[in-house]
What we know:
The chain is α/β, with parallel strands linked by helices.
Amino acid sequence: MTSAPMSASNWQAQGPRTTLVSSSTRIPSRGPAVISCVSSLGVRAQARREIVFALHFPAESATIGCYDSGGKAMTQPITHALALDRNRDTRARERFVSGLRGFVLNDLAATMRTDFESAVATNLEKESSDKNLDGADVHRAIRGREIFKAYSSARCTAQQMVWDVVMDSIEKQREQLNSTGKSLADKTNAGGTLELDPNLEIPRYVEAVDVHLMPGCYYKEYGGEDLAAGALYDQGLNVFAFGAMGKELNDIGWSMANFYKNRFAGRQTRRILDAGCTIGHNTLPWKQVFPDAEVHGIDVAAPCLRYAHARAEAMGVKAHFHQQSAEDIRFPDNSMDVVFSSMFLHELPNKAI
């Protein structure tokens, strides 16, 4: 990983099998601006192939990114006290990666669907007339097509880049980040608490894989009082989601809490539990919607919980975080009025749900 400054007009990320090169400078000719992805395909294929695909934009505004109606990048600046210092080069890189993910998940996925419907679907239905098609059937039918390989390679690369563009800032600011987090936790301005269990066994589905390709997953620590994994998740999610989850990346929590309040108006809500809370993005809105309730969040990842506690204190929201597994919740039976989870169950094996 390089820490050399990179600008929006000259951005290159290199991995073991992929090179991405972009240019967001104005193109003087009438032709489209071209952002090329030259990628070694065949992460799971027998042969290595290469494909070049182009992203086309009007020549007068050859940029990549997600922008609102006012032309501003949609990635939201994190404003609480644990926010990383990000220079213009870092912000440009983040916008590029957000834009690339948007292109892959929207434009490239739509192209893949069109290819499937026009060139694959009819024959597949004829060949499988005796059974109901499922996702595995579709995957077998399209995995050899160039557009599927391009989509898969680009999506994997874009996901790796989400963390790459954030990690540089964390590595440079880790000591300050941990110091700020400890100071916030010690002051407990909001009155929240943190309870860690150093003897908790990390589940294999967390320990053995980098979930969402996040380096070190959620639980990796780089020293005492470490918050790096929490910071990586916080800023990485901002890039990952194109800034579409709200100013504090908490729109899901707000939506769930307000839905519950409106749907079950008048129901007594004194204690609330967030199972798999990570850094509390969707935990804190429940306290803000139900200010008199006691709100708890559990997770197996200590650095994320440290970050969650410090973040909550920085934001002035009282919440209690515990290092527990959702497979073995240690609160007494019938002690919670609401138990919820968000952005969590899809990361568990079926046997853990």
